[in-house]
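We modelled the chain as a single entity of 384 amino acids. Its sequence is:
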Amino acid sequence: MRALVILLAVTCAVTSSNIYLLQPVLDQVAHDFAVSEATAGLCATSTQIGYAAGILLLVPLGDRLDRRPLILALMGLTTLALAAAASAPNITWLVVASAAIGLLTPVPQLVLPLGVALSGQGTGRVVGVLQAGLLTGLLASRAYAGVLGEFAGWRQVYWCSVVLMIVTGLALVLRLPSAPGTEPELRYGVLLRSLPGLFRDRGVAGTCLAGALVGCAFGAFWNTLSFVLTRNFGFGPAVIGLFGLVAASSAMTSPMAGRLADRRGARTGQVVLITTVLAGWLALLVGQGSVWWFVVGTVLLDVGVWGNQVVSQALLFSRGSAEHSRLNTLYFVTRFLGIAAGSGLGTRLWGSSGWGAVAACGLLAAACALPIAVRAARREPAAV
């Protein structure tokens, strides 16, 4: 079982990395296609919107279908979308291909409830381990995208991901067991129509809304980071990509956030982690002229954002297992819509008012999330 959990963590890493490939090289895309930074930023925003749509339309199928063929099919289609992005002749093509990548890449959101169901271990612990894999891929993707983009161009970033997807897909063909859905009798339309009913639960709705607000704070940061580091400090794509490794502590602390949820309860976890997000944005605002303050702020922000996600998922997975894929759908649709909103709003605020406005947006979003998350956690058992 340990080997399978590791393979699932690697799968989360490889697939999640596809969502953030362009962020370190947005300046290159803007230059190559002779478009503005805001227009280039649409590629990242369309990926987030596509990802939210994919989670909404595809992840609920995990409660009905065998997840093995579903995961393998999505892996293959995502590989084709990555190849299309690498071959983009213009910015419109790249925006559409980016949306397709997002739409077809909700694999981690199928893998997370699958890992919990197969492992039989503590919910928070398993979610933490799988998310540690997800974050390792996310952070590594920013690093290799930045370095590879600087020396070989942004298109090679996508071709590299094509190779990683093929290798991971072959490993899953060999090792991933069959995992029939928990409610195979439900038709697809019934699955989708059941989502609003789940969202009417105040605990579920509060957890999802707080996740969207924290996601907004996250999206505003990472979609504008390449611009501020280029303009304020003169860094190129390689350094900007390596900046993602500054936040590697978030991958290491995700299992800790899971254990915190298991032992101390979701309410405590939400207070600790969303407060960490606020502290990160304060550091980024106060020290905007210092790269070292940016390092501190990035670490705090990522630890808080991803730890909050672990606690929120552990909270939702403490409910009935028959609903896990749909609960994950609700959480990540709202989460990534929040990230997409933050990405788009962040680039607009950067263009019109500068970094101070971006930081104010992040602070406000996190501050609004805190009471909502705490109130939602009160509606669940003290320890999940």
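As a brief sanity check on the tokenised model: The mean pLDDT is 81. The longest helix spans residues 202-233.
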